[in-house]
Write a structure and sequence with these properties.
Layout (H helix, E strand, L loop, with lengths): L7 H15 L9 H10 L5 E4 L6 H10 L6 E4 L13 H7 L3 E4 L14 E4 L22
């Protein structure tokens, strides 16, 4: 990871510390909280679909609530460790048929079929760039 080589023991310790503290310290995107509140107020149900392992779903939901996101459900898709390019969220999105699906990983849009869903990609490549939001697809229905 990041060119750092861990011994097996170091990897176990890193994962333990990350699992306890790392997820809690991830910053939210500017405007994310406000957008979620506007959608919730307009009557939309917000569901978080994550590729994080299922064991962290409770912690993620707790963190979302701590930051006052109006999200009451988190679904873990997990991911195929042997095929990172496979879309781990495909089946869940096809089953949910959401109005909008927002994600920041391109692979999470791959092969989604038979849904009438607006797909919105947040391109983190432009983070801290004055034009960082130029690549966000703006096909969301107006509230």
């Amino acid at each position: 990871m990041y060119g750092i080589k861990f011994t097996d023991e170091e990897r176990i310790e890193f994962d333990k510390v990350w699992d306890e503290h790392g997820w809690k310290n991830m910053p939210m995107h500017d405007g994310a909280l406000e957008a979620c509140h506007l959608l919730h107020k307009a009557g939309y149900e917000l569901i978080c679909v994550t590729a994080m392992p299922a064991q962290f779903v409770g912690r993620l939901l707790e963190d979302l609530r701590l930051h006052e996101f109006p999200i009451d459900k988190v679904i873990s898709s997990g991911y195929d460790k042997n095929n990172f390019h496979k879309n781990p969220k495909k089946q869940i999105i096809e089953d949910l048929h959401p109005v909008v699906f927002v994600d920041d990983l391109r692979r999470n849009f791959k092969d989604i079929q038979d849904v009438h869903t607006k797909l919105i990609f947040i391109d983190n490549q432009y983070h801290d760039d004055p034009n960082q939001y130029d690549q966000i697809y703006r096909g969301v229905p107006k509230l």
